[in-house]
Amino acid sequence: MGKPRHTRIGAQGEELAAKFLEGQGFQIMERNYRFERAEVDLICFEPAEVYEQGGEIVFVEVKTRSGRGFGRPEEAVTPEKQAHIVRASRAFLYEFQLEGAPCRFDVISVHMGDRSEPEITHFRDAFVEQRS
Predict the structure, then answer these.
(1) What are the CB-based long-range contacts (under 8 Å, 24+) for 23-31?
(2) Can you give the pLDDT at residue 60?
(3) Is the whole-model pTM more than 0.70?
(4) Burial of 64 (0-12, 13-18, 19+ CB in 10 A)
């Protein structure tokens, strides 16, 4: 028995997102980083020469859909999901002694519709860490 369809589609979307980011000059540092129950799909480094505000660690949430029935993929990155991503990102920065490094949170939406090629949309600075 194989993986559920949504798990396969999600993994396929993450692979497409990683290839897309690498094509943009990003370096993949980690995939599916977990801290307790929180997870970050991709952790990348964007060198300064790629983007004028670069030289930062980028925590990327990838959302993949095969149809439009559940809305646009990026709409699934709720405030609760954002909080989990922030928690995992803090753990990553602490574990690798990178606290204080410039970083941001991006979302990549992958739509695997009827088209021959998947539709990939990259949302830079999709959300910010909410300080309490």
Answers:
(1) 24/50, 24/122, 25/49, 25/50, 26/50, 26/58, 29/57, 30/92
(2) 98
(3) yes
(4) buried
